[in-house]
Amino acid sequence: MKKPGTSSFIRITIFSLLGFIQTVQADFSSDAERIFNDAQQVFSQFFPTAQDTQTLDSWLYRYYPSRDIYIGVNQNDGGVYGLGGVFGDIPVYIDTTQAVQALLQNKKEDSGPLDNNYCDMTPDGIECEQNGYSVNETSNGQCIKVSEDNNAKLETGINVLYRTNASILELKGLTSSIPEIVNFFDDFLISQTNVCAMNVQKMPPDDISNYTINTNMCFDVTDDLNNIAALANKELIEINPPITFHIVGLRVETVVDDCFSSDAKGIFNSLTKESWIKQNGAFVKLE
Fold first, then answer.
1. Measured on CA atoms in the order 231, 232, 235, 236, is the torsion positive or negative?
2. Which of 17, 29, 143, 241 is deepest in the core (most CB within 10 A)?
3. Domain segments of the chain: what residues?
4. By three-state DSSP, how is residue 276 classified?
5. CA 249, 138, 38, 104 torsion: positive or negative?
C-alpha cells in the first residue's frame, strides 16, 4: 500500500511543469488565502490543520501532510486544483476561484443538515461528532466489539456501499506462512476499503452521499472469526488473540440498488450474517 507522502516529490514536479508553461500572474494571492482558510474551516476532513501558503512558479498552494493533500490556485488560469489523497495523483481542476469562493461561502452559511444526525446511526462504543456534513468517528484507541444487531430481522432491501480512502489498514492476531492464506488476508483487508452492506435496517439520510466520515476505528473480531480455529488446529495459521482490525481514513457512503452489481470488494448481509469478498474478479462466500 502506498504510504502518505511517498509521491510528494513527483507531485511537486507536476505542479512545477504545469506552472512552467503558464504565464505567472500575481492577482490571486488574497483570493487564494481566503479560499485556503475557508476550505480549512468548511472541509476540515480534507484540510485539517492550518498550513503555510507556499509558492511554486505560477502556483500558490498549501500542503496537508496528515492527508497527503495539496490545494492550489493557479495564478494564470484562476483555477483551483486538488492533488493527492482523495483527489489522486493527477491535479484535479475543481473550479474557478470565484466559483469556489461562492461554494465555500454558502457552506459557511449553511452548516449542513439540520434534521439528519449521522451519529444517531453509530453503534455503542464509538465516539462520534458531526459538524454539518463532516463527521469524525473514533474508538479512542480501543479495539471494540460490535454487539450483535438483534433488531436485524427485516429484509429491507436497503444496500449501502462504504468506500474508504485508508491511510492505515491492519489485521493483527493472525499470522501464516502459507501464501494462499496470506493472500486471503490481503484480500480481506482490501475488501474492507470498499464494502457493501445488504439489508441495512435503518434508511440512511437522503443526502448520505454528501457526508464525509473521518474514521479511526479498531474492532475486536476474535469472536466473529469462528472458523479460524479449524485452520489453527491444522497448523495453517497461528492465532495470537485478540484478533483486531484497525482502519484509519476518509469514508463516503452511497445507497446502491445491488451490492453484487456495485464495485464493492466485500459484501456483508446484515440480516443473514453472510459475507463475501472479491477474489480474482468474482465474489467468494466466506464459510
1. positive
2. 143
3. 8-109, 118-285
4. strand
5. positive
